[in-house]
Specification:
The protein is built from seven helices and 17 strands. The protein is α+β, with helices and mostly antiparallel strands and 335 residues long.
Length: 335
């Protein structure tokens, strides 16, 4: 029997390894090995993933600087700057806007936002150089009405100003020229507020000059505007940016043409030729502007009613006599 024992082991051993008999016979038990799950094999090598990349659940982890989030398909800045303070409306209707300078802004960036030149902003805000703006400054963005003029041989500042019925000092200021000697033949300058009479076709019929018109009472126009200066004399019809000039003695009260909110109130300075002026924005989106005033009686953010006094007739800015320069932007000027 002892001689047969080795032979039995040789036959039984392979079977015991596969069935676990060997370990039970000899009492050998490894707890770690017993808990190891069995390896499942497959005949299809394509079912086995050898290497696979780990997906990062945070898709913004690699972004630098201010966060950028996607809001219904639009990229929205969520970085260090706050919300823009300028109006969303287009400037196509000549709308005047006010922009509050933020940290890191440059004048060229602001000009690009509003589709104007840096000189337009400098000129309208009495700023001498682009680096003069500071965070917190309120800038009036005034779409310029003017004429481009290519300087020709023989041109002088006075002849150019006379040709376009403009102001010589205003031309120098807007084009950042220190003197008339800086005019260079071939260069283009902007004539702010210039009138291009020479562009009009020649007429064979006789034209008549419209006499100054006396305005009386507080009649309301078809556009819903009441007269800003009752009893005044209209000395100039539509010119500049949809404006009329209404003459009256210095100190005559100027009244809001309709209910609205004051968005600009500038006192002191040239202010693009307007001098002391106020801009009121109305509920229909139109804006009315009152310029050359001796003084303003309302400030930015004030709510005014139709007929409420906003200032008094004066001669500030580009003015050759006491009058109100009254503009309507975004609607017809009925006066």
């Amino acid at each position: 029997m002892a001689e047969l024992f080795p032979l039995i082991l040789i036959i039984v051993a392979p079977l015991s390894v596969h069935a676990g008999v060997f370990t039970s016979l000899f009492g050998v038990f490894n707890e770690a090995e017993a808990e190891t799950p069995a390896v499942v094999t497959t005949d299809s090598p394509s079912d086995v993933k050898l290497l696979s990349s780990r997906l990062n659940p945070d898709t913004k982890a690699a972004l630098g600087g201010g966060d950028v989030i996607v809001d219904e398909g639009a990229l929205v800045s969520n970085g260090p700057f706050g919300a823009d303070t300028f109006a969303d409306e287009s400037l196509s209707a000549g709308e005047i806007s006010v922009y509050v300078v933020r940290e890191g802004d440059s004048l060229s960036q602001i000009a690009e936002m509003f589709g104007v030149t840096t000189n337009t902003i400098l000129w309208a805000n009495d700023i001498s150089k682009a680096t003069a703006i500071q965070p917190g400054d309120s800038l009036v963005i005034l779409p310029i009405v003017g004429v481009r003029h290519v300087i020709k041989s023989g041109d002088t500042l006075s002849t150019i100003a006379k040709k376009y019925e403009a102001d010589a000092e205003e031309i120098l200021s807007y084009n950042q020229l220190s003197s008339a000697d800086e005019l260079i033949v071939g260069e283009t300058i902007i004539i702010p507020g210039g009138n291009m009479h020479q562009a009009a076709p020649k007429r064979t019929t006789k034209t008549t000059t419209v006499a100054p018109t006396k305005t009386v009472g507080t009649a309301v126009s078809s556009a819903g505007f009441s007269h800003p200066l009752p009893g005044s004399v209209r000395t100039q019809g539509i010119h500049g940016y949809n404006a009329v000039d209404l003459a009256a003695p210095v100190g005559t009260p100027i009244r809001a043409a309709a209910d609205g909110e004051v968005i600009v109130a500038r006192s002191g300075g040239w202010n693009g030729g307007y001098g002391n002026y106020v801009v009121v924005k109305h509920s229909n989106g139109a804006q009315t502007l009152y310029a050359h005033m001796s003084s303003n009686t309302v400030g930015v953010g004030a709510t005014v009613g139709a007929g409420e006094v906003v200032g008094y007739v004066g001669m500030t800015g580009r003015s050759t006599g006491a009058h109100l320069h009254f503009e309507v932007r975004g609607a017809a000027n009925p006066f």
